[in-house]
Design brief:
about 500 residues; 6-stranded mixed sheet; 13 helices; alpha+beta; Aminopeptidase; OB fold (Dihydrolipoamide Acetyltransferase, E2P)
């Protein structure tokens, strides 16, 4: 049920598992709090709308046999990209095969090649499964998936599946029987984790909604020419309630009355029997500040993450690889060195799992724990990490810990990491994380001065730079600058730049 509270609501701390929603004009931010800590943060702005989950009727623009892929025109700024493994059989079976061939035995089936599946100019239904990044367009699939809270309806794949996070055999069997008995012909159903313990009636009600939605999308597709837009995933506040509410997370706190009313209507229409608390926050203190989310966001760009014990992590994010290093730091409480290292690694294992979710680290991740000689301790640290990672909704493949304490994993990339959403590369360092040292800059200045002195006899030259550079220049090379002035008959002046910006220094002749 939906709990209606007094408009005035204030909690002193993040004490319970809850979803926190902040709305500021055209920006929506969502945070997930678990066990008193922030574990996930999402940011969505209308200037950069999310496209994952959107469905289009596309047209094949170009086939690339060497990559076994094709580019699909969808009417967007960039064409989409689809690999052969993401093209459903239904998209080409009727086009290339006669009806008499559809019952061919499985033993005769071979993995098709892209040029036998698609042709240029062909129209097909596609869904965005990965946001565009850089120069790359969105990644597509013709295996259409419509998620609800309890189910995912697969429009073009005829299967019944149960979430891998549902572990009890009797529950898996119950859900499998419900889905098998009610699955529409030619489609597929997957039971999501939230379906555990949910009655058959509620599951079937959602199935009816998803079936109706799928029929509407197919009808639009049949009546429109490619490229055309067919379906948009709900906005962030709705997706947060749909995807993040669980048996452990049943409270949603928001600072917008409009969002409060919208979620209240959504829950009543779709999940009237679900026990959910909607709370409206109206205190003058910003909601993300009150619940400690802003402080977490401020740390997202920091490489060093301190552990409560005094140890720390170093997180280095590259384009295709993230490396996380564990260090002892100030922690010295163990009885001996082995105990100290073990305690640090155990704490780090849980914090690393949180940071992976919080920062949305994706792709290849390498974790370098502090070396442990005892294999049983290595196993315990590894198990602690994998257990903490089980709460993550993104799929990961984790390799065993090596003898040297290294764990490698790959994590599903649906959207870019949080840092790339809330920050941009530094203009001065071009994203490297480094700028020229002060001494490097002062010797560049001296070389630039020397190259101009000969043509500036009897004139003045002004060196404009930051206060630090000017002070270091005078401290290290003041005497040599005066010698240059005397030898070249040039007066060298200095001027402090208040806001150097991209220009660490300027040299001007008068």
């Amino acid at each position: 049920m939906v709990e209606e509270l007094e408009p005035k609501f204030l909690s002193n701390h993040l004490m319970e598992n809850q979803i926190i929603i902040n709305t500021t004009f055209n920006e929506t931010r969502v945070a997930l709090g678990e066990n008193g800590t922030i574990t996930e943060i999402y940011v969505e702005r209308q200037s950069h709308p999310r496209t994952v989950g959107n469905i289009y009727k596309g047209r094949v623009d170009k086939i690339v046999p060497g990559m076994q892929a094709a580019f699909i025109e969808m009417g967007l700024e960039k064409s989409g990209f689809i690999s052969v493994e993401d093209v459903t059989e239904d998209s080409f079976l009727d086009f290339f095969l006669g009806a008499e061939d559809e019952d061919s035995g499985e033993n005769d089936w071979k993995q098709p090649i892209i040029q036998d599946i698609l042709r240029e100019g062909q129209e097909l239904l596609v869904q965005i499964i990965k946001e565009p990044t850089g120069a790359k367009g969105p990644k597509l699939s013709s295996n259409i998936a419509l998620p609800g809270k309890y189910l995912v309806l697969l429009g073009t794949v005829d299967i019944v599946g149960i979430s891998r996070r549902i572990y009890k055999d009797e529950e898996r069997q119950r859900l499998s029987e419900i889905l098998s008995a009610s699955k529409p012909p030619g489609t597929g159903l997957i039971a999501r984790t939230a379906s555990v313990g949910v009655g058959e009636g509620e599951i079937l009600d959602e199935l009816e909604y998803l079936k109706t939605l799928w029929e509407e999308i197919k009808s639009k597709s049949e009546n429109q020419k490619a490229p055309s837009f067919l379906y948009r995933e709900p906005k962030l506040c709705i997706r947060a309630v749909r995807d993040l509410l669980t048996q452990d997370v049943k409270t949603v706190v928001m600072d917008s009355k409009e969002v409060y009313d919208e979620l209240q209507t959504y829950l009543k229409e779709n999940f009237n029997g679900v026990d959910v608390k909607l709370k409206l926050y109206e205190d003058p203190t910003p909601i993300f500040t009150h619940f400690g989310v802003d402080s977490e966001l401020e740390k997202i760009a920091e490489k060093k993450v301190w552990l409560k014990s005094g140890g720390y992590l170093i997180i280095d994010i590259a384009e295709a690889l993230t490396v996380i290093d564990v260090n002892t730091g100030k922690y010295l409480k163990g009885k001996n060195q082995d105990d100290t290292i073990f305690d640090i690694n155990l704490e780090a294992a849980q914090e690393i799992a949180r940071q992976i979710r919080l920062r949305n680290l994706v792709g290849i991740i390498v974790i370098d724990f502090i070396d442990m000689k005892d294999s049983s301790k290595r196993k315990e640290v590894y198990n602690t990490f994998t257990k903490a990672l089980k709460r993550d909704k993104a799929r990961s493949v984790v390799l065993e810990m090596s003898l040297f304490g290294v764990v490698q994993l790959t994590r599903q990339r649906i959207r870019e990491n949080l840092l790339s959403t809330i920050a941009e590369p530094c203009e001065q360092c071009a994203g490297t994380g480094y700028v020229k040292s002060v001494e490097t800059s002062i010797y560049e200045i001296i070389r630039a001065l020397k190259s101009r002195l000969e043509s500036m006899a009897g004139k003045k030259i002004t060196v404009a730079a930051s206060k630090t550079i000017l002070q270091t220049l005078q401290s290290l090379e003041g005497e040599n600058l005066r010698r240059l002035e005397a030898e070249s008959d040039v007066e060298i002046l200095s001027e402090e730049l208040r806001n150097p910006g991209n220009h660490l220094y300027e040299i001007r002749g008068e």
